[in-house]
Amino acid sequence: MVEELAVNAVEKKLDMQASILVGNYEYYYACGKLKGLMDLAVDEKTAPLVMKEIVDEALASYTPDEETEPVKAYLKTLLLRYRPADEYDAQMADLFRQGRDGH
To answer: What is the model's pTM?
Structure first.
């Protein structure tokens, strides 16, 4: 149930292009989506603060066009704004995989 809520929340935020990520569950799902779009040196076992460093570094050179790729552009915005807590559990790994695999 928690995973479904996080997935739905991120997908709605990307569609509406509004709001922020709330919590590491949403963050891991969003990072999984990014992993599905580009080659990142992260996986579902990457710790939150390490994930943040690697993702932010990769996003520095990632420039999706806001007009032709608005969802990708807003995904970048959501990820850059979020500050993860240093908490990790198995549901975050599941959410990362769901985002990466497009579920």
So the answer is: 0.93
CATH number for the domain spanning 86: value is 1.20.58.1400
Closest to 24 (Cα-Cα) out of 103, 97, 91: 91
Element (H, E) at 52: helix 48-59
**How many CB atoms within 10 Å of residue 41?**
11
Report how far residue 43's alpha carbon sits from residue 9's, in angstroms, rounded to the nearest whole number.
21
In a domain, 21, yes or no: no
Q: How many residues in total does the chain contain?
A: 103
Render pLDDT for 62-99 as a digit per residue (tens, 0 to 9): 999 999 999 999 999 999 999 999 999 999 999 999 99
The token pair that represents 14 in the structure block: 């990307």
**Contacts within 8 Å (CB) and 24+ apart, 14-19:** 14/71, 14/74, 14/75, 14/78, 15/71, 17/70, 17/74
